[in-house]
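Protein in question kept in full:
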Amino acid sequence: MRVVPLLFVSAALVLSSRVQAEETLPKPEPATAAILDPSRDATPAAWPTAVKANEGAPNVVLVLLDDAGFGAASTFGGPAKTPELDRLAARGLKYNAFHVSALCSPTRAALLSGRTDHQIGFGSVADGATGYPGYNAHWPKSAASLARVLRDNGYSTAAFGKWHNTPYDEISPVGPFDRWPTGLGFEYFYGFLAGYDSQFAPRLYRNTTPVDQTRTEKDGYHLTTDLVEDAVKWLHAHEAVAPQKPFFLYFAPGATHWPHQVQKDWIRKYRGKFDQGWDKLREETFARQKALGVIPANAALTPRPAELPAWDSLNDDQKKLFARQMEVYAAFMEQTDFEIGRLLKSIEKDGFADNTLVLYIAGDNGGSGEGGVDGRDVINADGTVPPAAARLQRADEFGEEIFDNHYAAAWAWASSTPFQWTKQVASHLGGTRDPLIVSWPAKIKTHGELRTQFQHVTDIAPTIYELAGITPPDKVDGFAQTPLEGKSFAASFFDAAAPSSHKQQVFETSGNRAIYQGGWWAGARHAAPWSARRGELAIGQNPWELYNLDQDFSQARDLAKDRPDKLRELTALFDSEARRTQIYPLLPARKEPPSPADGRTVFDYRPGADHIPQRIGPKFNRRAHSIVADVTLPEAPEGVIFADGGDYGGFSLYVKDGKLVYLATAWGNVTGKIVSREKLSRGAARIGVEFIPDATNPPPVLTSFEPRVVYAGKVVLSVDGAEAAQGRIENLQFSYNETLDVGLDSGAPVSPDYASPFPFNGQIDKVRVELR
């Protein structure tokens, strides 16, 4: 049975009038209409019929920004100019009580499934997975994705940008691929599989195949621009072949997650715009929010947390440095707005805007405080941060590929105005509330209005299902489906007074936890993301707080002491919901996820073995190791023989000017370069590398950015068994999202001596790695 959209008849009335049949996907093939006859003329031909979407089903564009707080974009009073988002809001609706998880992977899992994050294994980011049902990052078969349901109901589906919901041990050239975007219902994918990537030298996939980048920062390349261009190409291909089918386009660019990287022309527009500091910026943003009407007139501005410094307490160098960080971030957001505007304008120009439902979520969590109190940009080779004065000397270069580019945590707090706290802090609205803009020109006729209903990211999928006339499936591929947690809020599109469809919601991220029910919010903060590593503090050191959101928009008045009865009721509800949705245990011990490299000490690589994520390869920097490459050298040899990592961490074994070179990097610094004394001779050769670590090296630390662990040691190069050179590497580190390559260096180049991919011009038979 199908439920037609709310616009025409209430789904509830249909369901109350008859017994609902079990809805399964894929849909059964139609039975043969007649018994086949030996005579061709006696049996009419009939082609199998394809599944068709319901008449009038809208196209859907779902946009998700990254690490953007409630008060970042100008559309909601923020300092970053977002004229394209302003334009969309002017012809649509603004939601000021829309909630997400306080972290990226969890929000995306909830968004694309309609279930809570922990229910489908994403209580943390994919790279922080651990072996508990709520945290294992293994999207279950019992939770079919929004894309899968739409695809099996006649939609074309495509995803562009960041995908952070595949287990890291499954991101490999051999899969398995059933938890990649194309295994979860998207017919096409172009983007990266990680929490973040470089905007100038990203590691991209098209479907399940790595993509070699031929353009660089110097050529004007930028990832968000590239994603828009590819999305427009996909739309044009769709129109050329199947314009009668509705499309679902999921656009999640990875902006404005760190590293904040954007061209200088955008940054210049913000010079001097943040010299007033974060305290004053919050006051300015708060005033604009009230003037725009996106927050109530009686809302209060919450105070600065004690963990963050007052702007006036900083010295002049710190103020100049931190202001520059925010200039880069605001520029990054404006450039992102411009590019997404290009995508939406293309849809409009091509004549599809009228029946295209756009759902634009301006942040998957609050502003990110993960850069710490001082932010990150220039980092020493040992992982320590130089004084502000030294960093300030390179401030004109901020925004470039070589820097970590993360603003100070107080800017994250300011971009989450008027709320308390930031990303990861699920106990407060600063981590969990972000703007939502909805536009659908064919149906939504009340433009520019505000909607204040409490809604949650899990509500997006059921809303789309209702408007497309789709009944959520009971079974998919034979697997019984976990019921949707979200509720459609389509009624609010047409009625500002429609009640909230979402009455209750549990939140938890990194031990910070909360429960909402009927206007009341109880929350308990575990720790600030910049001040404590996971597991260092015991749960319960900070007390539960209580807020009445119906009367206190910004969580400015804690009522825990005034209403202990209500607080007890809500904390008991949190406990029952935590048990039901797999939130427990809180703060499960972090352990590296399994890897295909586990238990192996010998690795053989041949030509074609490239774009292998470092996290599933040998852990070079944790133990002594050797690399032996059997090659045939041409008359003038040149190029990369073997590389692992990039300019922010890794090593490369290459030939330059006829000499063998081994170079290592850490946090944008060269930490050692060993060059052979003689040039290489033409013909077959066995190239060797030995890394002998210092005996004092500590074991790896997996809990946080700090403290930095230094891996130092001696490197010996050899050719045909004879020593060619030796030297010292002061630190051997690896980039989070770079790759291992044979015969080239994909992504950002490890060495400043060459531009990627710098392919080897000889022949490589085999490269053997042995861990001691």
Q: What stands out?
A: Confidence is low (pLDDT under 50) at residues 1-19, 701-707. The chain has two domains: 59-502, 602-771.
